[in-house]
Write a structure and sequence with these properties.
Number of helices: 16
Number of strands: 14
Largest sheet: 8 strands, parallel, barrel
CATH architecture: Alpha-Beta Barrel
Organism: Solobacterium moorei
Keywords: Glycosidase, Hydrolase
Shape: globular
Strand order of the largest sheet: 1-2-3-4-5-7-11-12
Strand content: 5-15%
Distance between the termini: 12 Å
Structural class: alpha/beta
Bound molecules: 6-O-phosphono-beta-D-glucopyranose
Radius of gyration: 21 Å
CATH superfamily: Glycosidases
Protein name: Glycoside hydrolase family 1 protein
GO molecular function, one term: beta-glucosidase activity
Pfam families: Glyco_hydro_1
Length: 482
């Protein structure tokens, strides 16, 4: 298609999250978040880098913003580390932490880059985990509200776009990576807690939406959801129903909350039948319904595939597996709900080395479907290819595979826009290389190479990859030259 669909004010940029990029985990008053603890454990178990230094953006932010400016960014999506603002989760604010984000935001504004802030990206203050279990306890909702109100007030003059909680759907699937879950709760008998903590997040999300609307003049707010459209493995009607069930439990269960203020019926009935449904207190659904979203931010990497699974007593319920090795095919399993659906590999799609299906058309499917159903503006706040990159002796990175991946996904967005979908931003993952949530720093996503390994942080020097120059041209031509 030759028609250029991207509106003039389209927000081209990229994303990161605090614990994956900042480092300075214990500097200037910051205390641990649960990710500092989880990643220390991953270092011991798998040799993946800790979050202590990550990409050291805390000390490199000026250089990083200059590189973003050079690429032509119109936006930068990043998250605020709760434990940098409130080292103990609540109580005393940490002025140095607040100053850091003011500096970063000022630097962005001076360079005409629109900051898009995420309030929560997996990094609950460790103090709250020690105090009462973090997201496992309803007290977190009040403490999140305290943190969110402070931050929204503090930055209200500079931030128009707010995203609330990153990827509730992924937190439910991979709860031990994204939350600190004590070992005794990981036995499969406590899976109701996945949906319970998600319910607390729904309350927190609604509170944050209301706060933005109350405090920020012209503020816009929405969740950032990890989203993968689900295809049936075959056109067998049983597989089609399985895909519908998976779509309900993995996707609609979240989007119906954000836009209709209700739990999706098919998903909820399944959860109730299996003792997995969240306990909902009086007034909760009214609060949820009051938190209006202005847009939905979407993190799209892959589509998923589902097939029918009989409830024959042989197959057991389980959640998504993970590939820790980075060798294709090493995935530890697929989510299974006997009598409802079983996830599986899509035989028609190639994958990354970590078994994520590569499916640009899935982006179009997702955008078309969500816009049809909810009619709200959509932002892409993540999309990208995790890959092993090589820094050559003359300090180049020839990441043509990433260019190929991203260009096809942008073309898919363009097609969706040409079909009438309102997309307002494209912020792929990630601006700079960073610490992956599941695979250390050797799995890279950035336009900017950060010279470090899992074992050795070196100086975290920055180098422009080939994709840097390619993206610069994409932005310069407003998506015309892919
Ligand atoms: C998204 C998260 O799920 O995917 C990011 O919001 C994450 O935090 C990204 O880094 C890629 O996943 P991973 O596991 O490869 O880092």
């Amino acid at each position: 298609m030759t028609h250029n669909a991207f509106p003039k004010e389209f927000l081209w940029g990229a994303s990161t999250s605090a614990y994956q990029v900042e480092g300075a985990a214990y500097e200037d008053g910051k205390k641990a978040s649960q990710q500092d603890i989880i990643n220390k454990d991953s270092y011991n178990k798998f040799g993946f880098a800790t979050a202590d230094i990550a990409s050291d953006e805390y000390h490199h932010y000026k250089e990083d913003v200059a590189l973003m400016k050079d690429m032509g960014f119109k936006a930068y999506r990043f998250s605020i580390a709760w434990s940098r603002i409130f080292p103990d989760g609540v109580g005393e604010v940490n002025p140095k932490g607040v100053e850091y984000y003011h500096n970063l935001i000022d630097e962005l504004k001076v360079n005409n880059i629109e900051p898009i802030v995420t309030l929560y990206h997996y990094d609950c203050p460790w103090a709250l985990v020690e105090k009462y279990g973090g997201w496992l306890n309803r007290q977190i909702v009040a403490d999140f509200a305290y943190y969110a109100e402070y931050v929204i007030n503090e930055f209200k003059d500079d931030i128009k776009y707010w995203t609330t909680i990153n990827e509730q759907s992924i937190i439910v699937q991979y709860w031990t990576q994204k939350c600190y879950i004590p070992e005794e709760l990981q036995d499969g008998k406590h899976d109701q807690m996945r949906y319970q903590l998600n319910h607390y997040m729904n309350l927190a999300h609604a509170i944050a939406c209301n706060l933005v609307h109350r405090i920020v003049p012209n503020g816009q707010v929405g969740a950032a959801l990890g989203y993968a459209p689900v295809y049936p493995l075959t056109s067998k009607p049983e597989d089609v129903i399985a895909a519908q069930n998976a779509q309900a439990l993995r996707n609609d269960y979240y989007t119906d909350i954000y836009f209709k203020g209700i739990y999706n019926t098919a998903a909820m009935k399944y959860l109730e039948e299996h003792g997995l449904a969240p306990v909902i207190e009086e007034g909760d659904m009214e609060l949820i319904a009051s938190g209006e979203s202005d847009f939905l931010a979407l993190n799209y990497y892959a589509s998923e595939c589902a097939k029918w699974c009989n409830d024959d007593g042989i197959k057991k319920m389980c959640y998504s597996g993970v590939n820790r090795s980075g060798k294709k095919g090493d995935i530890s399993g697929f989510e299974t709900h006997p009598g409802f659906y079983e996830m599986c590999k899509n035989p028609l799609l190639d994958t990354t080395d970590w078994d994520w299906a590569i499916d640009p058309i899935g982006m179009e499917v997702m955008l078309r479907d969500l816009y049809n159903r909810y009619n709200k503006p959509l932002m892409i706040t993540e999309n990208g290819l995790g890959a092993y990159d090589i820094l050559t002796e003359d300090q180049q990175v020839h990441d043509h595979y990433r260019i190929d991946y991203l260009s096809k996904h942008i073309a898919a967005i363009k097609r969706a826009i040409n079909r009438g979908v309102e997309v307002i931003a494209y912020c792929p993952w990630s601006a700079v290389d960073l610490l992956s949530t599941s695979n250390g720093v050797k799995k890279r996503y950035g336009f900017i190479y950060v010279d470090r390994t899992d074992d050795d942080p070196k100086e975290c020097k920055r180098f422009r990859k080939d994709s840097f120059y390619w993206y610069q041209n994409v932005i310069r031509t407003n998506g015309e030259k892919l």
